[in-house]
Design goal:
Length: 308
């Protein structure tokens, strides 16, 4: 019959030692709780202010000087004004399409490249890995990138905001590290059963890499959704602008695109309310998607970073 020995406790200063390991005392726990509460408040309050300002009546926004924390009522005029003209709706659909297509393309290329770099028998494995690592340190620059996009004929095309950022060297390294850490015995047994490289990749590599690919896909998706600089650089046709570039037009230039279509029956809300409403619209899709991928986040990053 086995017996267990209870951990020995003894006081040491303001904390407690359990088997020689210090445990924080009550004061340290209270201080940590206060610090974490302050940090959480600093993170949450701006979001609350953005949502409240977008819903607050125009009179309250004008009286408060442009930022409201607790609205006196709910006024959806700002959302109606930015959605009625069709500019924001079109930009929202463009951003959604670019994000979906770009994320699928980026995940496909990253998974394939990561798998190839993890296989020692790949021709030019070391040279290609060195090229990927060098790209982490050196940027091509704006002018060379613009000239390449121009020579490929992608100016004023949505491919101009997808192709140049379709592969991230950091994400490739993370995926490669995961594939390197897969048990070699399993791969060898699959090869004995007649599986080729493509079958190994499709039926073994990809299913096992779901946590890492979920995290990498989240990175790519957020990047495509929030990207505006490439659109500003490569797209001169405003009909192709994604949501973030339209948001920049509202916030920086102070232009209410499409607001002139509202007519006399609806008065225009304050510019600050318009800006906050666009921010809310741009944030909501990421907030909806993130909870479904959050459970893979820590596991995927730790696995990809530690292995290999």
């Amino acid at each position: 019959m086995s017996t267990t020995t209870a951990p020995r406790r003894r006081k040491a200063g303001s904390g407690t030692l359990i088997d020689g390991v210090p445990r924080p005392g009550r004061v340290e726990n209270v201080v940590k709780a206060i610090v974490l509460t302050i940090i959480c408040a600093l993170v949450i309050l701006p979001f609350v202010g953005i949502i409240s300002t977008s819903l607050a009546p125009a009179e309250q926004v004008n009286t408060a000087g442009g930022f409201v924390l607790l609205p006196e009522g709910i006024d959806l005029t700002a959302y109606a004004s930015i959605l009625t003209g069709g500019v924001v709706t079109r930009a929202l659909l463009i951003s959604a399409g670019v994000t979906a297509v770009g994320t699928v393309l980026s995940l496909t290329l990253t998974a394939m490249l990561g798998w190839a770099l993890s296989r020692r028998q790949t021709i030019g494995n070391r040279q290609l890995l060195l090229l990927v690592l060098v790209s982490l340190l050196f940027n091509p620059g704006i002018i060379p990138s613009y000239l390449v996009v121009q020579q490929l004929g992608m100016l004023d095309s949505l491919w101009a905001i997808i192709v140049p950022t379709s592969v991230s060297a950091f994400n490739v390294i993370v995926v490669r590290a995961f594939f390197v850490g897969l048990p070699q015995e399993v791969m060898d047994s699959a090869r004995i059963d007649g599986a080729g490289e493509w079958k190994l990749f499709w039926y073994m590599g990809l299913p096992l890499a779901r946590p890492v690919l979920a995290v990498v896909g989240l990175f790519y998706g957020v990047g495509y959704w929030n990207a505006f600089f490439n659109a500003m650089l490569y797209l001169s046709d405003s009909a192709l602008w994604p949501l973030q570039l339209v948001l920049r037009t509202y916030v920086v230039d102070g232009t209410q695109l499409g607001a002139q279509d509202l007519g006399a029956e609806m008065s225009l809300p304050p510019q600050t309310t318009i800006q906050m409403a666009i921010l809310v619209i741009s944030i909501i899709p990421i907030l909806i998607v993130y909870p479904f991928l959050q459970r893979h986040f820590a596991k995927g990053m730790l696995t990809g970073a530690v292995k290999g």
